[in-house]
Structure formats: C-alpha cells, structure tokens
Amino acid sequence: MKMRKRNGALVNLLLMLLIAALYFATSRPDAAAAMAQLVYAPNYRGYAEDAVALQFAVSWNAASLASILDTLDAHDAKATFAVSGAWAESNAALLLRMAAEGHEIATMGDDPAFDGKLSAVEADVSTSLARIEAACGVRPMLYYSGSRNVTVSARAAKRLGLMHVLSTLDLRCAAGSAEDIWQRGLKAPIEGSIILMQPTAAAAEALPELLDGFKGKGLKAVRVGDVLGME
Known about the structure:
Elements: H1 2-26, H2 29-39, E1 51-58, H3 65-74, E2 80-83, H4 85-90, H5 92-100, E3 104-107, H6 118-136, E4 142-144, H7 150-160, E5 163-165, E6 169-170, H8 178-186, E7 194-197, H9 201-216, E8 220-222, H10 224-227
Parallel strand pairs: 1-2, 1-7, 1-8, 2-3, 4-5, 6-7
Helix pairs in contact: 3-9, 6-7, 8-9
C-alpha cells in the first residue's frame, strides 16, 4: 500500500512539473505561436498512393471554367473547386454544374483578399458557407485559406467544423504559358499531392496535357477529399 502511495505521489509530481513546463513554454509569444501551429496544422497533402488532387481556387479570372469542366468530363477526372461566397452568389449555374458532375465544392471564404482576427475570419467563412449552400444546395466541408494567416484560419475552420487545407504544389496558373503550367505539374508529382490551380485560359489549355501526364505516371486526378480519405 505504501509503495502504491509513493508511486501515485511520484506520478502526480511529474504531471505537475509537466504542466508547469508547458505553462512556461507557452507563456512566451514565440512558443505559443509554435504550439498553436502544431495543434491547428492544416492539411498540405493527402495519403492516396495512386492519385493526386486538383484544387482550383475560384474567385476571379474564372472565364475558362466551362472549358475546364468539359476537359475534366472528357478525361473522367474529378477536382475540388474552392470558391468564394461572392463568386458563388453570382455564378450559381456553374456551381450547380460542378456539383452535378461530381466535383467537390470547397470554400475560400467570402472575400479571399480579406484577413483579420479570428472572429472576423470566422464570420467571413461562415458567410461564404451560407452563400454557397444557397447557390447550389451543398455545404462545403473543406476550407482553403489561400494567403490568410494559417493559424487564425485553422482555428476558424475548427470552430466551424471544416477541414482546413492548403496545397502541396502551386502550379501558378496566372504566370507563364500552358506548357510552363503542365511541366510544373509533371516534373515530379508526389502521390497524394494537393495541386493548386487557378481557372485561367492558360490553365484550361494545359489541363489535357496535365491529365494525360498523370495517367501516364499511374496517377488519377481526384478531389481533395479523396486523397484525404474523407467519406
């Protein structure tokens, strides 16, 4: 009995020392930020062994979306479209087509150029969810935060019950030619990658070569939720 009491006291002492150490570490601003990054880390890559995910950020320069959807359909490929709430409200027909053809609808907030404190970002994302659902009947489960503060966005996503995603590779579809874009994507594709694209004219031109190239490497083009193993 005495041995059990001594062991219990020792465990309690160790727990108290651990709590004190964590309090000391996280009371410093730099350490607190690092801890927050660990707790609220977004998803940069998935786990699929035979696929990569295409994630289109849709808020501006989206005139080529219909062509992109045609190409995806012709290649029996799927993608994720992270749309802004403002764009969704003005482009309900395209959004409905994306959903009807089996693509994944994600949000990138109501105004992707906006960034701010947690409460403001949470409100912005919440507004986007309502607008997207009103436009196509789908409530997104994924949040692509773009250039917003990662930790703030991750905490907002957690509060709203969303999966926070970024990307493994950005093809920079607003820079360079179609050839530049597909070469970036096929240079060294990583299984399970989340590949970021923008619906530019050059991206639409590059997409067939990109999809054929993935197929030649034994990789399917799928949705972000697919490489993350979401049901």
